[in-house]
Amino acid sequence: SSRFLSSLLRFHNEQAWSPEMVKQIREECRVTPSFVSEAEEKALLGEVETRLQKLPYEESHWDEAIHLYREREQRVWTAENEAVLARVRECSFPKDTSHLTYVHILDLHADGHIKPHIDSTRYCGDVITGISLLSSCVMRLRHEKRKEELIVDLHLPRRSLYRLGGIGRYEFTHEVLGEMESKFDGEKIERGRRISIICRDLPKQQAKFFAKMQPIPQE
């Protein structure tokens, strides 16, 4: 078996990867299985489903990155779900991070997929992290300049947490494979409707601005 194969990360074309790049991807792009319990998944779904169900599935995203999806942003959560989101932030971000106050909820239809893209630095900072609810999937990272050469697949089981940071955030596109392509290390990963709850940090420029706005401590 591949020397780079771990249970949830699979590096393609491994001879093309430098040890340093493998190390960086392993450190910055992580999957934590069973991050939420079945009860926590149910509570999160209970809070987001009602509002999502009123929205139609969209054919394509404004930047054409997503096919068959619906999405919304949410700022206020129940105490139970807020505790889960606090755990997500604690596991994924450095201690003094400035967080976006709105959490992104993305509902991907069973026949939908997310095309390769790099999230704009205008809207979020150094880390993208999210919980996969309802369905497992395969997230594929491709090096922006060496698309066919440097590819790594992340198996995101249902109720897992994924985290993208470092070169995985800025130098690699990420995508969620559609049902037909949904394979990990040659094995079929069944893809159904998937809801992801995504936390992000503030873009660097905004974080700097807000840091300057902090009140000066009184002597």
TrEMBL record:
GO terms for biological process: DNA damage response; fatty acid metabolic process. One of its GO terms (cellular component) is mitochondrial matrix. It comes from the Eukaryota. Its cofactor is Fe(2+). Residues 73-200 form the Alpha-ketoglutarate-dependent dioxygenase AlkB-like domain. This is Alpha-ketoglutarate-dependent dioxygenase AlkB-like domain-containing protein.
